[in-house]
Amino acid sequence: MYSAICDMVYPVVPNTTSLTALFKHIESTDEPSADESIREKVLSFIKDKVFPLKSELLKPQEQMERHITDLVKKVVQLQSLQDVTGAEFKMFMDFLRSLSIFGENSPPERVQELIEIIEGQADLDAQFKVSDVDHIDRLISCLYMALSFFMRGASNSKFLNYLNKDIIPVFDELPEERKLDLLKSLAESSPYTAPQDSRQLLPSVVQLLKKYMSRRKTGEEMNFTYVECLLYTFHHLSHKTPNATNSLCGYKIVTGQPSDRLGEDFSELYKDFTERLSNVEDLARATMKKLTQGMSEHNKAMAAAKTAEAKDTIKKQKQNTTTGLRTCNNILAMTQPLHSKSPSFIGDKKINLSWKEVAKPSAPSTAATAGGKRTATNGSSNTASKKGRGPGGVQSQLVNRALEGLSRGGRSGARGRGRGRHGRGRAYH
């Protein structure tokens, strides 16, 4: 299938009509099994022959970029629950963000337009079910994908409200391997949260903090990365709405607003919260001492290692130890100011989250195999130019080249598309 497209010697010069005709072949049909191979061939053609040559093909630029954006939105929004896999969605979003109309200097409403597409894929209007692992993976992947747009001013309100209402109340029931991914994404989103959303989310974050910051030593191991994520989130949300912590943690922060609630006695909350902070600090210092001793042992072992395999193993152990030390250092830096009755919350980039020190992957682990059910080998792009004659000629040229080779290079055993929610598999996990 794919080699047939790569063998084409003439490029495509699309217009709005030809692009519309091309995208129709990746929309749902009434005969899914018969059209699966066509859809996959057209997707590969778009990926390798249209998207890479957007600067040459999409002219006039703004008009054509808007048109192809509308076509992509139709595919990923109207069919997201049935037809678009994780890999396909990422491909479409990477393409949209590369367009000039969504560039770094584009107005906020343009960036918000991209966030709304991601929100649709995350299925934030659906009732959440803990048993729906696919939805959990998709939600985490989409939240991760949205982070760069939050940084550019797009609202994270819908994501965080969904987390607050539907996810955090059942956090204990989530798969263990997903909890940390969720807390990391929540932490990285927190600096871009509006004051109103911060006030609504803070009570849930404080409850989770108390769960993972025990008041007294229990002998159980503490999940320091959970605590790091939640403390970071707590600081950034509290920085946006500081007096909300008065009734949550017993602080006495004065803003002059009725929500200060200074006439009420929250001293027991303050005592409880600061005792938890002290316990976390003791455990973090003890852990740092052990990790430092362990690092010394790793260095000795590295000097004595004879094989490359042994050195690689020790190197990984040292990296894990270094990350653990960073995590504990971050925790201590964030707990210390919270002992004050009127603390100053960290709302800048002073804290560098421990996992951000290493090279950041392009997608979270939960989406690493996204789209694995539909793979394609990248082909070379032909940059020669040959124009079609009139709109009809261009439309026929574009569609025919995308579909060429079905009889001689297409897959006869293409997977059929189911019509239900998980018909084709979204491959987010």
Largest sheet report: none
How far apart lie the N and C ends?
27 Å
The SS-based structural class is mainly alpha
Radius of gyration: 26 Å
Helix content: 55-70%
Q: Which regions are unreliable across 5 or more consecutive residues at pLDDT < 50? A: 1-13, 365-426
Give the overall shape.
Answer: globular
- Strand content is under 5%
The pLDDT mean sits at 79
Number of strands: 0
What's the SSE pattern? Answer: HHHHHHHHHHHHHHHHH
**Number of H- or I-type helical stretches:** 17
How would you explain this protein's 3D organization?
This protein is mainly α and 429 residues long. It has a domain at 194-366. Helix content is 58%, strand content 0%. The protein is built from 17 helices and no strands. It has helices at 2-6, 16-24, 32-50, 54-57, 61-78, 86-98, 108-122, 133-151, 157-167, 176-189, 195-212, 224-240, 246-249, 267-304, 308-335, 390-403, 406-409. Helix 2 (16-24) packs parallel to helix 16, helix 9 (157-167) packs parallel to helix 11 (195-212) and helix 12 packs parallel to helix 15 (308-335). The longest helix has 38 residues, at 267-304. It is globular. The chain starts with a helix and ends in a 20-residue tail after the last helix.
Supply database-style keywords.
429 residues, mainly alpha, 58% helix, globular, apoptosis
Give a short summary of the structure.
58% of the residues lie in helices and 0% in strands.
How are the SSEs placed, and which strands pair?
Blueprint: H1 2-6, H2 16-24, H3 32-50, H4 54-57, H5 61-78, H6 86-98, H7 108-122, H8 133-151, H9 157-167, H10 176-189, H11 195-212, H12 224-240, H13 246-249, H14 267-304, H15 308-335, H16 390-403, H17 406-409
Helix pairs in contact: 2-5, 2-16, 3-16, 7-8, 8-10, 9-11, 10-12, 11-12, 12-15, 14-15
Biased composition (Basic residues): 414-429
Biased composition (Low complexity): 362-379
Organism: Tetracentron sinense (Spur-leaf)
